[in-house]
Amino acid sequence: MAIRAGGRGSGSWRLAAAALAWAVAGAALAQDAGSARQSRDDAWWTGPMLANSAETLPRGHVLVEPYVYDVMTDGNDGFGSRAYVLYGLTDDLTVGGIPIIGYNGLHQGPNSSGIGAGDQILQAQYRLTRFHEGSWFPTLAIQLQQTVPTGRYKRLARSADGMGGGAWATMIGLNAQTYFWLPNGRILRARLNATWTFARHADLDGVSSYGTGPDFHGRAEPGDAFYLGIAAEYSLTRRWVLALDLTWSHSDATHVTGYDDPLGLPAVAVRASSGSSDAFGFAPAVEYNFNANVGVLFGVRVIPGGHNLTRSVTPAIAVNVVH
């Protein structure tokens, strides 16, 4: 995402820098906390801001984790909420969905006409292995997500009303998670996510999420996307955790083809490409856990730029509940 120069973006950058400095200072101070080995039962976690867990829920258990965020760029505030609602179908298989809603506030031009539903996501995760103390092998899981194009994306009265992409998309991922004990005895939990997303085409008419005009008819073909994320969480105390995500993503070009057909004028062929994009990002966060099953997270995702990508800053708050 991005660091905005001045205004609200600079404030979020200061928040990100402060959180990162707190993480470094906290880890340094904790070196004096003694060398007794912390037990995993003594460490409570909410999870970092971005990286998915490789664990699955015990059979019959439920996880609910709503996020509220604002994707801030130079020209837009993308307010949104997504909630992970997951159920342990078996001890090794977790299924569920991720409902998403949003609202676009444009700095120049009309805002969204109201809060709208985005594309919804169905998810399943199967655990392959499980971490055991004394072993170097991590917990590994395969994750599958299916994006259902339920959000408005074409025949829009205003471009800010676009909440979806209009294309069915499938994501296949590998998640890993392991634990390290630092010299001071405290636990550092590490995660890795690697994903590949591919999508079908979206039929377009009129103003759309792809920047087409009111007289356009055609289709969009989103490119494949690849993502790699690593995260570390430091158990500062039983309740307090400092977290940091580092991410890299690549998206192939999206192609839009069709024609503009203004009333009373000859149709004009249209062929456009967004070009491929690459981005690096980071997301410092602080977790507070009320107990082993309820916690909150405060974090900021920062994408300072990249190839063919808009810079952005995304502050977020999340609540994690397992029952």
UniProtKB/TrEMBL annotation:
Keywords: Signal. It comes from the Bacteria. Residues 1-30 form the signal peptide. This is Transporter. It comes from Fulvimonas yonginensis. The lineage of its organism: Bacteria, Pseudomonadati, Pseudomonadota, Gammaproteobacteria, Lysobacterales.
